[in-house]
Amino acid sequence: MAKTDPVNISDPSGLSDPKLGDDYIRTLARAVLELINKDHFIGVATSGAYNEDDAGEHTKITFHAPLADNPAGKTVNSDEAVTDAHEGYLYLKDVANSDEDDVAELHFQDENGNHIQMSAEGYNYLEKPLMPNNTVLKAYNAAKDGFVELFKCNADGEFEFLIKAKLLSDSTTISSSELSFTNGVTEIKVGDVVTGETSGKSGTVRSITLSSGSWAGDDAAGSMQLVGSTGTFTSGEYLKVGAVVEMAKAGTYTAGTVGVIATEDYVDDAVADASFGNYETTTTITSDVEVNDETDEIEETEALTDLLLVATCKNNNGLSKRVNFVGKTGTTSNPTTERCAMSLWGDGQTVGSRSGFVMFVKKGEYYRVTRIAAGSEYNKNITRTYTVIPIGS
Q1: CB-side exposure of 227: number of CA atoms within 13 Å?
Q2: How far, in Å, are 176, 184, 249 from residue 236 at the CA level?
Q3: How far is CA 230 from CA 174, 196, 253, in A?
C-alpha cells in the first residue's frame, strides 16, 4: 500500500518558496514516523511530540524478502566471507522443504561467517531437522576439530544410524579410508565388511554416499568410508560382502583419516552390534587338577565401559563337587565386595549339571572372580565360561 507521506528526496526543490520550509519539515517528520511505525512502537503524540520512554522499541521484525544467498561480509580469504568483528546477520533465505518447494526460513550468520538455519517448516530447526537426501547429521566437539556422524538421510529419504560414540577432550583420531565405487547392483550398507574379490583387501563400511544412479537401477555410484581397512583395493575389482559377490566395482582407494574423534572405547556402527549388548569377550577355564584353595581365576580387571559379566559352570563328570565361584567388584584394585556367586554342591552331581550368575560392573570399577573349593576332587573337571558384554560408553 502506498505511503500517506512518502519520503521524497526531491522535496523541496531549489526553486521552492522558503516560506514553505516548515511544511516540508512536518511532511518529512510524518513520513519518517510512518516508516518507523512499520515495526516500531512510537506511542501517542502529546501536543505533536512523541516522547514516551518506550518510543522507538521494536514491536516485530519484518524481513522484506529471502536473500538469494548468505550475506556477504568482508573477505578474509578467497573462499570465506565474514561479518565485521562482533557483528552478525539475521535474515531469511529460501530452503527446499519436504515437498521440495522453496520456503523462506530464518537464518543467522555469525562474525566468522558460519551460517545457521534456525527454523524449518514451523519448527525450531533442532526440533525438526529437515535433511536433504544423501546428507549426514554430525555432532562436533567444543573445539570443532572433530566430529561424529550420527545418522544419514539416504537417497530414498530414509534415516540410517551411523555411529555410536562419545566426544571427549582426551580423544584421538580414528583412521578411516575412502573407497569410491561404480556399477552398484546390490546395496552395500553401513556395518557391512566389504572385500575386494581380486585384492582380498577389506574394510568395514562406516558411511556410504551415493553420487549418482541407484541400487535398484544397477548403476549406483558413490563413495564409502571404511574403518579397519587392510590395504589398497584394486580399481575395477568387484566388491563382495560375505557370500554375496559382485555387488559393485571398486574405484579409487584413498587411505587417510577423517574428523572422527574418540577414546579407546570408541564404538562405531561397524562394531556396535559386537560391542554393545552382544557377546564380545569369552574366557573358558576347565579344571583338570584337584584343588583345595581360594584362587582368583579372573584376575582383577578395570572395566573400560559399563558391562555385564555372564558366568556359567558345568559339571563334566559325576564326581562329588563342592565349589563356589564368587564375583567381586570395587572402586580400587583387589576388589572385595561380593556381588554374585554360582555353586556346584553335593555328592554325586549329575553329569552336565550347571550353575551361573550375571554381575553388573560400572565403568571405572574393578572386577574379579574367585574360586573357593574345599576338599580333594571337588573342583576337578568343571568348565567355567565367563563372557563380558559391554552395555555402555
Answers
A1: 20
A2: 21, 12, 5
A3: 14, 11, 12
CA distances from 186 to 178, 189, 218, 249 (A): 19, 10, 7, 11
- Residue 370: other Cβ atoms inside 10 A: 19
Residue 18, preceding bond cis, omega within 30 degrees?
A: no
List pLDDT tens digits, range 210-239. 899 999 999 999 999 887 788 899 999 999
Q: Which amino acid appears at position 352 of this protein?
A: G
**Do the beta carbons of residue 230 and residue 201 sit within 8 Å?**
yes
Collapsed DSSP state (helix, strand, coil) of residue 296: strand
Segment holding 31, helix H or strand E: helix 21-36
CA distance 213 to 184: 8
Q: What is the rounded distance in angstroms from the CA atom of residue 194 to the CA atom of residue 204?
A: 6
Q: List the grid coordinates of 215.
A: 541400487
CA 19-22-27 angle, 5° bins: 130
- Number of Cβ within 10 Å of residue 269's Cβ equals 22
φ, ψ for residue 263, nearest 5 deg:
-95, -175
Confidence band of 375 (pLDDT split at 50, 70, 90): low
Q: What is the DSSP string of 306-362?
A: -EEEEEEEEE-SSS-EEEEEEEEEESSSS--EEEEEEEEEESSPPTT-EEEEEEEE-
- pLDDT tens by residue, 80-115: 445 556 778 888 888 877 677 788 888 888 777 777
Give strand pairing partners of 326.
Answer: 341, 370
